[in-house]
Amino acid sequence: MTRPLLEVFCDGSGAERVGRPGGWAFVIVHGDEVLRERSGGEAKTTCLVMELEAARAGLDEVVAAGWHRSHQVRLISDCRVALEVADGVFTPRPAKYAALTEALRALALTSGATTRWVRGHGGHRWNDHVDALARAARLAVTAHGRR
Asked: Where do the domains of the chain lie, and which CATH numbers do they carry?
């Protein structure tokens, strides 16, 4: 018997330069039902950190809720690096990414997540949704500091 599919859409938003505000977001959906969504941000970060944090936070939510025991899990992003980290085929070099990439990979293994890339700003409903949430989180940080 095939287990039902949970899709974890995630996205990060950051400035073009290092040390600027950034935001991240994920939404966990089953069919068309939103099970959970969250977002957050940092005052001084990078876009890649926000992409990785979005994926890590989404999978962490799946594992914490125990949904990985009864569902197939698919991590979906427009960031190939985040997906490659989750798949275990890429590890960014700078040491500042080590803890985040190790946590993401461990959660991908624990949840049994498969990955799927989608084109950013390509009109995909849930990817556009998390993009908007991540951007709003970044703008909130810009306006008010860490969120």
From this structure: 5-144 (3.30.420.10)
Give me the DSSP letters along 31-44.
TTEEEEEEEEEEEE
pTM of structure: 0.94
Two tokens at 14? 């950051």
User: 67-88: per-residue pLDDT in tens?
Assistant: 999 999 999 999 999 999 999 9
Whole-number Cα distances in Å, 47 to 37, 56, 94, 101, 113? 20, 14, 14, 14, 23
Which of the 8 DSSP states describes residue 3?
A: P
